[in-house]
Design goal:
Blueprint lengths: L1 H12 L2 H23 L1 H8 L18 H18 L3 H51 L2 H5 L3 H19 L1 H6 L1 H16 L1 H21 L3 H24 L1 H6 L3 H53 L6 H42 L20 E10 L4 E11 L3 E6 L5 H8 L7 E6 L2 E2 L5 H6 L1 E5 L9 H6 L7 H10 L3 H4 L19 H15 L3 E5 L7 H15 L3 E5 L3 H4 L4 E6 L2 E6 L1 H7 L2 H8 L4
Parallel strand pairs: 3-8, 3-9, 6-7, 7-8
Antiparallel strand pairs: 1-2, 1-4, 4-5, 9-10
Helix pairs in contact: 2-5, 2-9, 2-14, 3-5, 3-14, 4-5, 5-7, 7-11, 7-14, 9-10, 9-14, 10-13, 10-14, 11-13, 11-14, 13-14, 18-20, 20-21
């Protein structure tokens, strides 16, 4: 718990004003909660004719005597009305005192909850924003070994669990303990013996409840992890729905979902059973305490006459005022366990180290003048090297194509040049500067990326293309669409560039989506273009249209083309043939054909996978 609070402190500091007022109003609420029961005593005294008669107005002796002065003043006023035979007016005064006390109690309670609401919602909002920022900034390698659903469960489910569970502690951390303390102070003024009786039972209740709740945190953590798996199954099912249906695999995915849901059910039931015990256990203990109080207190009133009957009734109210917050604390302790498990998962992401973070005082690239050079690099995703002692130079204004069979390391080059991953050995330089020494933002600002999977977001065509340049005008967007050979179909749409592309761009064909992706890269207008098998997933007609768009885009630009088909690379200034992470041939299209080597075989097979 302390560890989580320490991690939350930077978020809490931003809302210190609300913390201050929440604490202040909670203390006032606790004070008036105790006074509310004390204020019943004068009313009970009037009703049972037990009012202490005071005939002279009391004298103010300072703040230290405030309790005695207030009591004497009230008794003086009430006594004067009773002696005049005006019992109704005396009753009105003591009832007004009760009403005012309860009114102030609830007013301060309301104000404290308002400030807590601003504090809680503000912290959770900042947590969400920081977590999303972290998720966006973490390198791709972080996600290669994680389920997307688990990350989604943390930013959605776990933060909500913190709101529903952990932040309940904020409601109780001042209010309930302060209520108990103020109540005990007043109780001791009535009878220290009775008060000790009450205090004897509270540790017993705490011990029993802590025994029940020991395993709650571990069960909560398991349930939250399984929820992440469940979200992953749903996300993967929806993403690959065509494959699921096409292969009649509905039963397999349904079975996986049911198994995960059943695990969550069992864990939730375990958590729920123990949560549900908190209420009955504290209720029974509370009733037991009240029963003992009535028995022992009755003796003090009726036999020993050490406490007045009206005082004893107020004391019982104060005892109840202790048991209620104690019960609330015991119930909250269970839910806080759930919240701690959720908070651990949230902070695990927030504290995840970014291994690709910019170095201190990193260089900012403000342009591209000479070349991109890849010098003796070696790289592995896991255990086996994908690239070994690989070197490549891409002079400014030239187009270099990478070809080879699947697994030869072509796409890895694109991932490394854009610094989505860091190399294990060697260096990659832009204009002689190692990309590890420059800011990722300035490096990627020089590069445009068109991938095999044309990634579009569920928004308008305009906003998808604007990702390339947020400051572009509508005319510039249309020019980019024209260069990308996309204006021909966009212009025919009823809403033009304001047309929504649908989820993952599914309102359009593969070729249309790819041309919109190219338009996005055109609008960015970067000096270096990286095409990662940009036409491999297209039919012949779409490929022709996209190929024209690519040629338009690559004019006067430095390009690294990872090729799948001959048409994409035959005009390249240099073609690199790769096999198992190494260069086996390089040269122009004509030169390589004349060598009668691997390139010629690939051309004959038309298989640049």
């Amino acid at each position: 718990m302390k560890k989580i609070i320490n991690q939350l402190l930077p978020f809490i500091k931003k809302f210190k004003k609300h913390v201050f007022f929440n604490v202040l109003f909670n203390l006032l609420y606790a004070l008036f909660s105790a006074l509310a029961f004390v204020s019943l005593i004068p009313m009970l005294n009037v009703l049972f004719d037990k009012t202490t008669v005071v005939t002279e107005a009391p004298v103010w002796k300072g703040i230290s005597d405030i309790k005695n002065y207030g009591e004497q003043l009230l008794n003086y006023k009430v006594s004067s009305y009773l002696q005049e035979g005006n019992a109704q007016m005396a009753l009105v005064i003591v009832i007004a005192l009760v009403i005012i006390t309860f009114l102030l109690k609830n007013l301060f309670g309301y104000l404290s909850m308002q400030h807590l609401m601003y504090l809680k919602n503000g912290i959770l909002n900042d947590l969400r924003k920081d977590m999303y920022q972290k998720i966006i900034n973490l390198p791709l390698s972080f996600y290669s070994k994680r389920q997307k659903g688990d990350v989604m469960a943390r930013i959605l489910g776990d933060i909500n669990e913190m709101q529903n569970s952990f932040f309940i502690a904020l409601e109780l951390v001042i209010r309930e303990p302060a209520t108990i303390i103020f109540s005990l102070i007043f109780m001791f003024t009535f009878s220290w013996k009775l008060t000790l009786f009450v205090l004897f039972f509270i540790p017993i209740a705490g011990f029993l409840i802590s025994r029940i709740g020991k395993s709650l945190k571990s069960n909560s953590l398991k349930a939250q992890q399984e929820s992440g798996k469940l979200i992953s199954i749903v996300e993967e099912s929806l993403t690959g729905l065509k494959i699921v249906k096409g292969y009649n695999a509905e039963h397999t995915f349904t079975s996986n979902f049911k198994n995960s849901a059943d695990k969550i059910l069992k864990l939730s039931n375990k958590i729920g059973l123990k949560n549900n015990l908190a209420g009955p256990v504290s209720e029974v203990l509370g009733i037991a305490t009240i029963a003992v109080l009535l028995w022992y207190g009755g003796q003090l009133v009726l036999i020993e006459n050490v406490i007045k009957g009206t005082d004893f009734l107020a004391f019982m109210g104060l005892a109840y005022a202790i048991l209620t917050p104690a019960k609330a604390i015991s119930k909250a302790s269970y839910r806080v366990k759930n919240g701690i498990a959720a908070a651990d998962r949230v902070f695990e992401i927030l504290h995840e180290e970014d291994h690709l973070a910019d170095v201190p005082n990193a260089t900012v690239l403000d342009g591209f003048n000479k070349e991109v050079s890849v010098e003796n690099i070696s790289f592995k995703y896991d255990d086996d090297y994908v690239l070994k002692n690989f070197s490549l130079k891409v002079p400014k204004g030239k187009t270099v194509a990478l070809v080879g069979q699947s697994g030869s390391g072509k796409s890895t080059i694109a991932n490394l040049v854009t610094r989505f991953y860091d190399i294990n050995q060697g260096s990659i330089k832009v204009d002689g500067v190692d990309i590890k020494q420059v800011t990722k933002k300035s490096l990627r600002h020089l590069m445009g990326l068109v991938t095999q999977d044309s990634i579009l977001f569920n928004d308008t065509i305009k906003n998808n293309v604007l990702i390339g340049d947020q400051t572009a005008t509508d005319d510039q967007i249309i020019d980019a669409l024209k260069i990308a050979n996309a204006w021909e179909f966009v212009s025919q749409l009823p809403n033009g560039i304001e047309t929504n592309v649908g989820d993952a761009g599914n309102n359009f064909s593969g070729g249309q989506k790819q041309r919109l992706s190219i338009a996005r890269a055109v609008l960015k207008n970067p000096p270096i273009m990286i095409l990662d098998e940009a036409t491999s997933a297209l039919d012949t007609e779409s490929e022709r249209l996209v190929q024209v768009a690519l040629e338009n885009m690559m004019k006067n630009r430095t390009s690294i083309v990872i090729a799948h088909r001959l048409s994409t690379i035959q005009n390249a200034d240099e073609i690199i043939v790769m096999q198992k992470g190494q260069i086996v041939e390089q040269g122009t299209h004509t030169e390589l054909l004349n060598k009668n080597g691997m390139y010629k075989k690939l051309v004959e097979m038309q298989s640049f996978e």
